[in-house]
Design brief:
The structure holds two protein chains of two kinds. Chain A is mainly β. Chain A has one helix and nine strands, in the order E-E-E-E-E-H-E-E-E-E. Classes of the chains: A mainly beta, B alpha+beta.
């Protein structure tokens, strides 16, 4: 992770359901690529971090120091994708659910 | 349902459009996939895995819904008739049912013809007596808790052309009605007109099952994954004050009893004179230890023990002489 770019971007994170103790009832998938967002949202923000208008204003206020204590905008997931999960319910019946927002596609400053 | 209905080809409810060729049941002719591990015995699990692979390949289309639940059958006798019961209680209120299908296996050959042909010498007996189409009545009843009788919710007549194969029938209206009325134990009787003997010698992988296709309206809520998949909570949930730290359990703490005998007001030893300024902590401890008696013999100790218990029972509270009390009051 150390040679990751400083700027707000998507970082790799693989989630193994055995690591979080859900593997007893989750049949499939055993793991999935969830990713996460991290990095700076410093003024001036490049287009690639797709700042909202509010984030742009906030980063200027932060840079100018008009109001003390205002942090820079946060690097958060922007576009996310769903994940189909096959698992056993409490009655040991097989259930298929498609959960939204389980994996990060793009990050942005908000 | 009126007689003469369509042969029970596999129903294609919104979410069940399998990639299998029409007329083939998803689980047929396939060895149980390794992903299912120990639960691969039942066809419901095999079917669900096929649906999972399809959802993964093609994603779920808007009309498909985001949930498919399978329900395995539990063989029961209902009013002395062999029935298959399904516990639908795990359906969530937020799951809007789009469709439901009943999947059953039509035995290869009815038994009575077996017996009949065994006696006859005619070798082509089996062919001559093979009834072209098997008529089955699927009678669905909802059962109230602990009652032996049910309320008929539906009676569907199906005509089976292919034996030794799986068939599916749409029962959306029956399951929707059951969920609406809260009667979530549904039993199905497969009546082929033969006199009732027991359950056909079906292997467990041939037990019927129900699939329910739904749209879970709560799945887009934040943290919906925790509602159905987080089965334990590493921290006790603080329903009350959100600021409570996860360790502060909301249950009332056991109040420890702080019993202070009224007579002891401080830690000073009664026989020590704390007034004179020669008082030196070290001396006090010296005196206290010096005054320990040499080890008494076993007999003496036993007697001493008796004396102690006697004195203990006599004076539970420490008594100070007047002089000490006077000093204490002065202090």
């Amino acid at each position: 992770q150390w040679n990751e770019p400083r700027i707000c971007s998507r970082r790799y994170m693989k989630v193994d359901f055995a690591d979080i103790g859900w593997n007893e009832w989750i049949i499939s998938p055993k793991s999935f690529d969830a990713y996460y967002c991290a990095g700076a949202c410093e003024f001036p923000m490049p287009k690639i971090v797709r700042p909202s208008n509010h984030a742009t204003i906030q980063s200027i206020v932060k840079a100018v120091g008009i109001i003390p204590g205002i942090p820079e905008p946060c690097c958060v997931p922007d576009k996310m994708s769903s994940l189909s999960v096959l698992f056993l319910d409490e009655n040991k019946n097989v259930v298929l659910k498609v959960y939204p927002s389980m994996s990060v596609e793009t990050c942005a400053c908000r | 349902e009126r007689a003469g209905s369509q042969p029970a080809g596999p129903v294609q409810p919104p979410a069940a459009r399998d990639s299998n060729s029409p007329g083939r049941h998803p689980g047929e002719g396939s060895s149980p996939p390794p992903a299912l591990g120990s639960i691969a015995q039942d066809m419901a699990a095999v079917h669900m895995l096929k649906l999972y692979e399809k959802y993964n390949r093609e994603g779920s289309r808007p009309g498909d819904g985001n949930t498919v639940r399978s329900f395995k059958a539990r063989p029961e006798f209902l009013a002395q008739k062999p029935s298959y019961c399904f516990n639908l209680t795990s359906m969530q209120d937020s799951e809007m049912i789009l469709a439901a299908t009943f999947h059953f296996y039509a035995d290869k050959r009815p038994r009575h013809r077996e017996v009949f042909c065994k006696r006859s010498k005619n070798s082509s007996c089996r062919l001559l007596h093979l009834p072209p189409i098997l008529q089955l009545n699927l009678i669905f009843q909802s059962i109230h808790q602990n009652s032996a009788y049910g309320l008929v919710k539906g009676n569907i007549t199906v005509f089976i052309q292919r034996r030794g194969a799986w068939h599916a029938k749409d029962i959306s209206h029956i399951v929707k009605e059951s969920k609406r009325s809260g009667e979530l134990i549904l039993c199905a009787e497969l009546d082929s007109g033969e006199k009732h003997q027991g359950f056909p010698e079906q292997v467990s992988s041939h037990l019927p099952y129900i699939l329910v296709y739904a749209n879970d309206l709560a799945i887009s809520e934040p943290n919906s994954v925790a509602v159905t998949l987080q089965r334990y909570d590493p921290f006790p949930s603080n329903d009350g004050d959100p600021n409570l730290s996860p360790n502060a359990s909301t249950d009332t703490r056991v109040r420890r009893d702080t019993y202070l005998p009224s007579s002891i007001q401080n830690n000073e030893l009664p026989e020590v004179d704390y007034n004179n300024n020669k008082y030196n902590k070290h001396d006090v401890w010296e005196n206290a230890y010096k005054s320990l008696k040499p080890k008494a013999s076993r007999k003496d100790r036993r007697r001493k023990g008796q004396e102690n218990t006697e004195t203990l029972t006599k004076s539970q509270v420490l008594n100070f002489d007047e002089k000490t009390m006077k000093k204490a009051r002065r202090k």
